[in-house]
Design a protein that fits this description.
Elements: H1 10-17, H2 21-28, H3 36-49, H4 55-62, E1 67-72, H5 76-79, H6 83-98, E2 102-107, H7 111-122, E3 128-132, H8 140-147, E4 151-154, E5 170-174, H9 176-189, E6 195-198, H10 205-217, E7 226-227, H11 233-246, E8 252-255, H12 258-270, E9 280-285, H13 288-291, E10 299-302, H14 305-324, E11 336-338, E12 341-343
Parallel strand pairs: 1-2, 1-3, 3-4, 4-5, 5-11, 6-7, 6-8, 8-9, 9-10
Antiparallel strand pairs: 10-12
Helix pairs in contact: 1-2, 1-3, 2-3, 6-14, 7-8, 9-10, 11-12
Length: 348
C-alpha cells in the first residue's frame, strides 16, 4: 500500500499566507479589492503548497468554465487532411492556452452531429464557441443562437439577405475578394489572356467571394473558364482536366486555394504543360507545407490563417471578460477583415 498526500485546501493556502479564506478565494479566483502585498502572499502560498483550484467551486464564483468549444463544420477526414484547419487550430490553441482556457474540439459529419453539438453547447459545458468552415443552409448558427453561447465565427457566415441583428455574433475573415483581384490582375499583367478560375465549394462564402474577385477583373471572360472545385487536391485535378477539355488554350489558372492549385499542377505536368511557360498558376492561402513543396513552388495569395485563429479567440475572450465584469450589454467586439498579400514564387 502507498500513502497519498492529501490535496492542499484553500484553507491551507489562507493559513500559510496569513489571510482569511475569503481573501485567499478572491485572489485565487481573480477577484478585485485585495491589496497587492496580500495578493503576493497568497500567490506565494499557492506555489509553495502546490494548490490547484477546484474547478467546480471556481465556476460558482466566476461563472466561467475556462473552456471554449471550437466547432468545425466538416468531417474529421477533411479536418485532419487539410493543413488550413491545423494552422487555424494552432492559433486558437495558443491564445486560449495563454489565458489558461481549454479547447474542446467538436466536428460535424451530418445532421445528427449538428443536433449533438447544439445540445452540448446548450448544456453549459463551455464559456463560448469559435465556429468556422460553415456551409450555406448550415443549421449551426441557429442552434448556437438558441444555446445562448457567446460566439465568434471564422469566415463570413453568410447572413442570408445581407442584414443582421445587432446582437449577432461577430466574425473574423480575410479579404477574399480583394486577394482574388490581386491574383488575377497579376496574371493579366504577365500578358495572359485566357485566365481561368477553379473555384472552391460554392456553398461557402470564401469561395463565392474569391469567384466575385475573379469576375471583378475578368468580367468578360468566357464562362467555360470557370470550373467548380471543392478546396481539395482531388477537386483541383478533376477541375483542371475538365478545364483543359473545355479550353485547351488556357494560359493561366487562379485556383481557390493552395490544395486546389496543387491538384491542378499535377494534371498540367501529366499533360506536358510547362508551368509557368505554358500555363501560369496562382493559389490562395500560402500554406507553406503546400506552397513551397509544389513543383514549381506556388505563387499564391497569403492570408494569416494562424493569426485569424488567434484573433477569433482573443475577441471571444474579451467578450467573455466583459460579460463576467458585467460591463455594458452593448455589443463588444466588431467584425474584422484581415488583409491579404500576393506572394510571388515560380508558378506565376
Amino acid at each position: 500500500m502507498t500513502e497519498t498526500a492529501s490535496r492542499p485546501t484553500l484553507e491551507a493556502v489562507a493559513a500559510r499566507a496569513g489571510v482569511s479564506r475569503a481573501t485567499a478565494s478572491r485572489v485565487v479566483n481573480g477577484g478585485d479589492g485585495v491589496r497587492e502585498p496580500l495578493v503576493e502572499r497568497v500567490r506565494r502560498a499557492v506555489e509553495e503548497l502546490g494548490y490547484v483550484p477546484n474547478q467546480a467551486a471556481r465556476s460558482l464564483v466566476t461563472r466561467r468554465h475556462d473552456a471554449v468549444a471550437v466547432v468545425i463544420a466538416e468531417p474529421e477526414t477533411r479536418v485532419f487532411a487539410d493543413p488550413f484547419f491545423g494552422l487555424q487550430l494552432r492559433g486558437i490553441s495558443k491564445e486560449l492556452t495563454a489565458h489558461d482556457s481549454q479547447l474542446v474540439l467538436l466536428l460535424t459529419e451530418g445532421r445528427d452531429d449538428h443536433a449533438r453539438v447544439g445540445r452540448y453547447l446548450a448544456g453549459g459545458h463551455v464559456d463560448g464557441a469559435l465556429v468556422f468552415s460553415l456551409h450555406l443552409d448550415d443549421p449551426l448558427p441557429e442552434l448556437i443562437h438558441g444555446a445562448g453561447v457567446p460566439t465568434v465565427f471564422g469566415g463570413r457566415p453568410g447572413w442570408g439577405d445581407g442584414t443582421r441583428d445587432a446582437a449577432a455574433p461577430v466574425y473574423v475573415d480575410s479579404d477574399n475578394r480583394g486577394g482574388a483581384r490581386a491574383a488575377v490582375r497579376h496574371l493579366v499583367a504577365l500578358g495572359r489572356t485566357r485566365v481561368a478560375h477553379i473555384t472552391g465549394a460554392l456553398d461557402q462564402t470564401s469561395a463565392v467571394d474569391r469567384l466575385d474577385g475573379f469576375r471583378d477583373v475578368m468580367a468578360d471572360a468566357d464562362p467555360r473558364l470557370v470550373v467548380e472545385g471543392d478546396f481539395t487536391p482531388a477537386g483541383g485535378e478533376r477541375a483542371m482536366r475538365e478545364l483543359l477539355e473545355r479550353c485547351p488554350d488556357v494560359d493561366a489558372v487562379f485556383a481557390a486555394n493552395d490544395l486546389t492549385a496543387s491538384g491542378a499542377l499535377r494534371v498540367l505536368r501529366e499533360r506536358g504543360r510547362r508551368v509557368p511557360d505554358d500555363v501560369a498558376v496562382i493559389g490562395f492561402d500560402d500554406m507553406l507545407p503546400v506552397a513551397e513543396q509544389t513543383d514549381p513552388p506556388l505563387t499564391t495569395v497569403r492570408q494569416d490563417i494562424e493569426g485569424m485563429g488567434r484573433l477569433m479567440a482573443r475577441l471571444l475572450l474579451r467578450d467573455l471578460d466583459r460579460r463576467t465584469a458585467k460591463e455594458s450589454t452593448e455589443r463588444g467586439p466588431s467584425d474584422v477583415i484581415l488583409p491579404t498579400t500576393l506572394v510571388r514564387r515560380a508558378s506565376a
